[in-house]
Amino acid sequence: MDVIFLLSGFILLMLGGDYLVKGSISLAVHLRVSTLVIGVVVVSFGTSAPELVVSLDAALSGHPDIAIGNVVGSNIANIALVLGLTAVFLPVSVKRRAILVDWSVMMFASLLLFAFCWDLTLRLYEGAAFLVILGGYIVRSVSSSRKEHDGVAVGPRYRLMTSILLVAVAGAALVAGSELLIRGASHIAQRLGVDERIISVSIIALGTSLPELATSIAAAVRKELDIFIGNIIGSNIFNILAILGLTSTVTPIGINPMVLRFDLFWMLGMALLLLLFILPLKNGTISRWKGLVFVALYGIYIYLVYTHRMT
User: Fold this and answer.
1) Burial zone of 77 (CB within 10 Å; 0-12 exposed, 13-18 middle, 19+ buried)
2) Is CB count within 10 Å lower at the N or C end of the chain?
3) Alpha-carbon distance 293 to 32, whole Å?
4) Looking at the 3D structure of the chain, how many domains does it have?
5) How many other C-beta atoms are found inside a 10 Å radius of the C-beta of residue 43?
C-alpha cells in the first residue's frame, strides 16, 4: 500500500507540475507579461512547485529531514541528472553571458544556505532573508527582461477561465500528491529502517525533479538551450530561496547533521562543476562526455547516500 501511495504521489506531482506550468504561462500571457518574464519567473517557480508543497507539508507534519532533504537532493538531481541526461542525448551550448548572473545568484543562495544550516536549524529570520533576496532576484529578472522584450510574442494557449481553472486544479493535485508521497515515503523508510533523509535526498528529490526533467527535455528538443540552462539554474534558486524561505518562516526546520556534512557539499560541488563545464560563456558547450560525467557523479552520490555513514 505504501508503494501505491508513493507512485500515486509521484504521478500527481508530475501531472500537477506540468499543468501548473501550462496554466500559469497561459495566464501570464493573458496578463500581458513578457515571454522572458514567463520563462524566468513562472516556469522556474512552476517546476519547483512540487518541492514547495512537499517541503512545506513535511515541515508542518513533523518530517524536517524530508523538508530540507527534498530541496538539497532536488538541486543535486537538477544539475547532475536532469542536465546530465539531457546533454548525453543532445549537447547543450551556452550563448548568453547573462547565465553567469543567474549562476552567481544560485551559488550565493547555496553558500548562504550552508551558513544558515551551521547551527542545525533554519529559523524565521533566515527564511525572511531568503525571501528578501528572492524578491530582489525577481525584480531584477523582470526589469532586465523588459529591456530586452516588449509585449508578448505569442497568444495564450488557453482561455482566461480555462487558465485559472488549470492553475487551481494543478495546485490541488500538488497538495494531494505531496500528502501521498510523504505518507508512502515515511512509512517505507520506517519499515526498511532507512533514515527519512536518505529517502528524501534520493527518491523524493528525484520525484519532485520530474517537472524540471520534462521541461528541460522539451526546451532542449526545441533548441531553446538558453531557456534549458536558465530553467535548471532558476529552479535551483527558487528551491532554496522560495521553498526553504517560505517553509522556515512558517515553522523552524531542524537540519540533519549529515545534510550539513555531506549533502550540501555535493550540492555546492555540482554548482561549481556546472560553471566549469559552461565556460567560456559565449561558446561553452555541455557535451555528451560532460553529461556522462554528471550522470556518473549522481550515481556515485546516490550510492554513497545509501552506503556511507558519518557520525
Assistant:
1) buried
2) C
3) 41
4) 1
5) 23
Q: Can you list the alpha helix ranges (DSSP code H) found in the chain?
A: 2-30, 35-37, 44-47, 49-60, 64-77, 84-89, 98-116, 124-148, 160-192, 196-199, 205-208, 210-221, 225-238, 245-250, 257-258, 264-278, 288-307
Q: Which grid coordinates belong to 243?
A: 521553498
Find all residues with CB under 8 Å of 161, minimum gap 6, and list them. Answer: none
* Other Cβ atoms within 10 Å of 89 Cβ, number: 11
- Residue 123: CATH number of its domain: 1.20.1420.30
- CA dist 145 → 21, 149, 194, 241, 274 (Å): 19, 6, 46, 21, 24
Stretch (H or E) spanning 285 = strand 284-286
What is the b/e burial string over 172-197, where b = at least 16 CB atoms within 10 angstroms of the residue's CB?
ebbbbbbbbbbbbbbebbeeeeebbb
Can you give the residue range of the structural domain that contains 188?
Answer: 2-307
Q: Taking each helix axis from N to C terminus, what angle separates 210-221 and 49-60, rounded to the nearest 10 degrees?
A: 170
Q: Which of 23, 21, 31, 67 is nearest to 245 (CA)?
A: 67
Integer distance in angstroms from the first to the last C-alpha of the chain? Answer: 33
- Measured over the CA atoms of residue 187, residue 193, residue 194 and residue 195, the dihedral's sign is positive
Q: How far apart are CA 8 and CA 268, in angstroms?
A: 32
pLDDT digits (tens, 9 = 90+) for 113-147: 999 999 999 999 999 999 999 999 888 876 765 55
Q: Which element (helix H / strand E) includes 254? A: strand 253-254
Location of C-alpha cell 556522462:
292
Tens of pLDDT, residues 221-255: 656 555 567 778 888 998 999 999 999 999 999 99
Task: Write the DSSP string, 73-88.
Answer: HHHHHIIIIIIHHHHH
The pTM for the full model equals: 0.80
